[in-house]
Each structure stands twice: as structure tokens, then as C-alpha cells.
Q: What sequence folds into this?
RNA sequence: CCAGACGGCUGGACGGCCGCUGUCCCUGGAAACAGGGGUAGAGGAAAGUCCGGGCUCCACGGGAAUACGGUGCCGGCUAACCGCCGGCGGGGGCGACCCCAGGGACAGUGCCACAGAAAACAAACCCCCCGCGCAAGAGGUACGCUCCCGCGGGGAAGGGCGAAACGGUGCGGUAAAAGCGCACCGCGCCCCUGGCAACAGGGGCGGCAGGGUAAACCCCACCGGGAGCAAGACCGAAUAGGAGCGGCUGCCUUUACCUUUCGGGGUGGAGGCAGGGGCAUUCCCGCCCCGCCGCUCGGGUUGGUCGCGUGAGGCGCGUUGCGAGACGCGUCCCAGAGGAAUGGCCGUCCAUCCUGGCGACAGGGGGACAGAACCCGGCUUACAGGCCGUCUGGCAGA
RNA sequence: GCGGGCGUAGCUCAAUCGGUAGAGCGCCAGGUUGUGGUCUUGGAUGUAGUGGGUUCGAAACCCAUCGCUCGCC
């Protein structure tokens, strides 16, 4: 949680905290799932895979049909996107591919707790 | 006031901070892009994908027939429809109103279980009636008189089975009966009147034609090329201008080579015909491609732009029509993503629910169904709560 | 986007075009056994996914809807 969002916004963009990329190909998701580390929490499941470079982090989002209909899945994914955006602004990560998997609890989880879940999951997965 | 019927509308409001996609402007930059500011940004069902179109590509010369699929009272609306509107007929409801695939059963075929004598073409199980008969049994007035039984004939009223049994009710009639006769109802045909029509009303004739099922096959009328924006077009990149197997391969002409016992034979090439392929099928005439067709293997591609939102468009007014709609004028430009934007957090209010309280109120919960993917017209399904209008029945009052 | 198929007993599946729904496994009870299993005898079991319609009669035919599943691009 940031107490000074305005000061953070004024910082010049550095290469290490550049806007994160997205994972799009099915093969990329499969690679992270099979070779990366898995860190489940109450609100989210994180899969992290270290790359051999220091490029900006790349994010992927997965919400299965089991969670609900299209409206519920959209809402779940958007909350994960927003929580990850705010968190990574204060805690830059580079050289990693991250996949965030939404669960049933993601939708009803208080937003600050959802951010804490992601932070703890990053620590659990050994992401620096 | 209560209960109900129908139609329409709506689908939380405002603000702050941080973000996303498109677009416009400014600044910097050769450009990519970066920064700043403005602006637009999910639905009535965006859903299911059940119909109908636009659009795009493919096929396409004409004709006939068949098949397949769909629709099915009448008239209208519409670009079109299995949609909508207005009527008609049938059914339900005290009523407002609601429901109905609602053409044809003398074109033909099939089916109608169980029960029942009989299930569709005529018949007769019990039965009703008449005539004849006493061999046996019973009663008796001693006779086929009665019961019973047998034979012959008339009949279909009544009983019984069934979902359904060759019209229904009543009167007459008769040995018993029967549309046998009559009245009313139903049915069929003809005529008249009203209506564009479906149909309705009336009159006459016929004594009854003849069961049901076409959401069984079918018949009739009408409609229908195929595929779908992953359509399709362009730019760029990369690979390849492939390999194998199988099928159809016969005749004629010509030519090259080989062979020859000089008759010819074999192999290959070219041309023609046959043949094959091209549309759901067949046929006729015609056209196109010929080495074609099928299968398998191998190789490459996963980028960008367009299509892509000015449209059967929205809103307002007017004219017209019972209505669905039509016409005219004015005005507006109103999402455009691509692992896919339209969000996250907070505050105030509004509707609503729970708890406490007589109450003002206080505390808490909590926003229905649901997310555009080329577009449009319908249908169907899901849906918290709220609003408006018209009408019906009942109660009370004036 | 386009196009198929299937929902029947607790489970797996039947019954050819309409006539009143069965089989195997499982379940329950009795017998056998000291007990259990095995074996044996008997028995129960169905809104036919849901809602309408056609028909005298529907698991079947028609329409709508829900769920599952498969294929093509």
C-alpha cells in the first residue's frame, strides 16, 4: 500500500521498472506452469519462472471457466491486473515470467489483502 | 379499497484519486516514440445460435424431372422470415383476456394394443319379433299353449366392451324394428345476401354420403445454389516449385528406337477419339479442363494493414393507417478490442433487506440477469426492484 | 462461426418405426456357517433431464428449454 502515490508518479521511468509485458501464447503459459515455481495463497495462485535476462517482468492471467461466467471471470482478472499493477509499481521485478491464476475467492477478497497475497506469493516463490 | 388481465418504460445517481483502449490537439523528435491536455468507450437481453437478410468468396449456359429441407386458415406489413399486425374458425375463463403447425382422410398405403361378437366392411354375442316343430325335460286349461330346445326368417331398439361401434333427442309408426315418416339439432350439396378473402347469415334439396390418425408415410400449393469475417483483399517473411502408392487406360493416326522368318512385333513420344473430372442426382443439348482423381509423406507460415461501422441508423415533430407500418421534414455521428480495453479503490446519496426502538432514528448487510468480437431484423431463454397507461370482476360510498 | 450425438433403477446399458419399461452389477431379507465371504432362494427399486403439444394412449412423434459430449474451420 502506497502512502504517496503522487511522488511515485513523478519518478522518471527507469529501464528496470518499465511497463510489464504480457504473456500471450499458450506455449508460454505451459512453460511457466511446468518449469516454474508454484505459490498458492487464499486469493490467488502464482506461478513464477526466472528468465536469464533482466528485461521487465512479463505477466499472464488465467481464470478458468470453473470460476464462473464471463462477467465473473472478467472481474476476477481485472482485480488481479490492478492489484499486480499497483504492487509492482512499488516492488519492481525483472527477469521473471509470472502467471496469476484466479480462484473463487479472488472476487470477494478485500483488495488490500489480495495485494498482500501476491506479495507473499512472490516471497514464497523466491522472486527477489 | 381488494383481486386480476394486457401493454409500455426503466435496469442505481453524483464526486475524488490511480489506470486501460480508440481518437483529436499541443510540445519534442527524421521516425519509432515520449510527455501533457481534451473527448468517446457494453446490453435489453450484448446470451442461446432457433430463423431471416445484408456483405464476401466459391460455383453458375439453358431446360425438364426427381430427391432433400422448410412453410401451411384469410388478408396485410416487411429487404426477408418459421416474424409482426388485423380478421376468421375452434377451445378455455363470470369477465378483461388467453391458447391453437389451424390445407387435404372419395389419390393411395399403413396403424388402431387390451377388452369386445365385430375396429372399417360389413356384420350380430346376449337380445327383440314372426312362422314351423313335442324326440327329451318342466308347467299346465292337454293344445307347440307356455318355458326350454331345434329349424327358417325379419330386426338392430336395449344390454355389454371400448378412446371410438354406419348421426343425436322427441313423437309417430311396427309383429319387433328401422330416416320408415315428421320436428329440431348436426352433416353434405345447391342457391341468395354480406365480405377482397377465410368465413358468416338465410333459403331450398338430400334421408346420411359415412370412424380416427397426415406433429404415420403421403398428396397439394409455395419457398430454398454452397460456404461463412478464421468470409475475403493487400503487404512482408520463410520454404517449396516436391516424393511415394493406388485407380482410370482402350482404339486410331503419325513418328523415333529395338527386333524381324520382311507378314509383322515390342517400347517410348505427339495428336485425335473414347474415357475421366467439374454443380445434390438423373436425362437432353451445350461448355471447360486434361493426364486427371484419391490417399499418404515431406517442407514453410502463427507478423502487419484493410475488411471495421453513415447504417433496412438513433432522436424529435408532422401527415397517414384500426394496426404492424409507410411517407415527409429537422437534427445527431454514437464502442471498435485482438490472451481481447470499457477497470480498481474511496466517499456521499437513492431503492431495498436485517436487528434494536412506540417513534424521530441508530448499527449492519447489500446492489437482478448478465460482457460487444462483421452488421442488421426477429424469436427464445435469464432477470432484484421500480414507474406509467388501458381494461375486467367484486365490495363500500355519493 | 458451423454441424452432429446423448440424457431411462444407486452404477453401466437395453427394448426397430406409439400399446403402459427390462438385464447385469449393486442393495435388502431368509437359508447355509460358530462369524464373515462364497453359494443359494426371494424381494424392493423409476417425476423416463425439464415444460408444453399431437394422439384413445408418448421413453418413442413435434416444439421449446437445460445439461453433458464429439467433430470441422
A:
Amino acid at each position: 500500500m502506497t502512502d504517496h502515490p503522487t511522488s511515485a508518479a513523478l519518478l522518471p521511468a527507469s529501464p528496470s521498472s518499465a511497463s510489464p509485458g504480457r504473456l500471450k501464447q499458450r506455449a508460454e503459459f505451459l512453460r511457466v506452469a511446468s518449469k516454474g515455481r508454484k505459490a498458492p495463497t487464499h486469493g490467488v495462485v502464482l506461478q513464477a519462472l526466472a528468465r536469464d535476462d533482466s528485461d521487465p517482468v512479463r505477466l499472464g492471467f488465467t481464470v478458468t471457466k470453473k470460476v464462473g461466467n464471463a462477467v465473473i471471470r472478467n472481474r476476477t482478472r481485472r482485480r488481479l491486473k490492478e492489484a499486480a499493477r499497483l504492487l509492482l509499481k512499488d516492488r519492481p521485478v525483472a527477469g521473471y515470467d509470472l502467471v496469476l491464476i484466479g480462484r473463487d475467492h479472488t472476487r470477494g477478497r478485500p483488495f488490500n489483502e489480495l495485494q498482500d497475497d501476491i506479495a507473499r506469493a512472490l516471497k514464497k516463490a523466491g522472486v527477489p
